[in-house]
């Protein structure tokens, strides 16, 4: 092709490339400025013990308060932030905000449980990740014992040795580690016995069609049994109905998170929601 119409193809290639690059770089620039301009906010979603109904944790979920586009879901920018490594400064910013909120809630005696924070594998693989979060944590004065880091199975796939060292160090410092979206990754199960884990979060896709779907019944039961055997807590994500909740209780699941109890909300909204209930 390039041989028959060199110029034409080259020009076509160039123009589609530049167009692509321009779109990307505008987005990347926006993202970079958004970090500098403090346009990111955190919403929080309670995690509930299925037996006591007590709130055991709050998961911090980032949103981008875009000046033009409005409130953007993390699905619109996390992947690109990972590709450009902007997730490193953004991730630290999220960590700091979440800890500041946890500290306020502890001081007000409003909530003393676990603050759960999503950590990208790009962050886990970053050389000085632990140093950086530890500096923030010590400054804000929140115990590592009340922090849970949510990682995904893919975090162990690029460099299993290094990631497991990092997780081991985090565990030694008192952090809890949970596996988010469990069951959707392509990693082997052997890492489960090697890593210092506390919790498996059953991915929402396996909960959605419960209790009706036979396959999802089998998968969620198997994950709960696996968690029990390995002495890990099991939390179900995306619980929306009483029927799903009943199924999970009947099958020995420990905890849940989902719209049935509460959607992710701003700290303020969550405070008034919990005061009313
Ligand atoms: P995730 O960590 O698995 O978070 C759960 C997602 O499910 C959240 O979407 C939450 O709003 C949604 N969800 C919770 N309960 C229900 C329910 O009952 N039904 C339905 N349909 N959805 C429910 P969200 O907030 O849009 O976050 C999407 C993903 O973006 C997260 O999935 C996580 O992978 C990523 N993410 C969010 N915040 C951060 C962050 O601070 N850092 C990083 N690295 N990733 C983040
Ligand atoms: Mg999560
Ligand atoms: Mg998840
Ligand atoms: Mg999920």
Automatic annotation (TrEMBL):
It comes from the Bacteria. Residues 24-277 form the EAL domain. This is Diguanylate cyclase. It comes from Sulfurospirillum multivorans (strain DM 12446 / JCM 15788 / NBRC 109480).
């Amino acid at each position: 092709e390039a041989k028959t119409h060199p110029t034409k193809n080259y020009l076509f290639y160039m123009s589609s490339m530049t167009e692509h690059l321009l779109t990307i770089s505008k987005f990347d620039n926006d993202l970079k400025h958004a970090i500098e301009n403090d346009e990111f906010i955190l919403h929080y979603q309670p995690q509930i013990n299925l037996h006591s109904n007590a709130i055991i944790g709050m998961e911090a979920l980032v949103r981008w308060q875009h000046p033009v586009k409005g409130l953007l879901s993390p699905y619109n920018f996390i992947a690109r932030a990972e590709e450009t490594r902007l997730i490193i400064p953004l991730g630290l910013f999220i960590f700091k905000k979440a800890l500041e909120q946890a500290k306020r809630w502890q001081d007000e005696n409003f909530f003393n449980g676990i603050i759960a924070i999503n950590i990208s594998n790009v962050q886990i693989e970053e050389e000085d990740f632990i140093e950086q979060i530890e500096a923030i944590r010590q400054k804000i004065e929140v115990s590592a014992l009340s922090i849970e880091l949510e990682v995904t199975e893919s975090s162990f796939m690029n460099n299993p040795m290094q990631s497991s060292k990092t997780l081991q160090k985090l565990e030694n410092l008192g952090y809890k580690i949970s596996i988010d979206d469990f069951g959707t990754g392509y990693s082997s199960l052997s890492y489960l016995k090697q890593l210092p884990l506390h919790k498996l979060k059953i991915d929402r896709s396996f909960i959605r069609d419960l209790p009706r779907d036979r396959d999802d019944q089998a998968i969620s039961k198997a994950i709960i049994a696996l968690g029990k055997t390995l002495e890990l807590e099991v939390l179900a994500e995306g619980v929306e109905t009483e029927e799903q909740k009943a199924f999970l209780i009947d099958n020995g699941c420990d905890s849940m998170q989902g719209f049935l109890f509460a959607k992710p909300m701003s700290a303020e909204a969550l405070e008034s929601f919990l005061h009313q209930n």
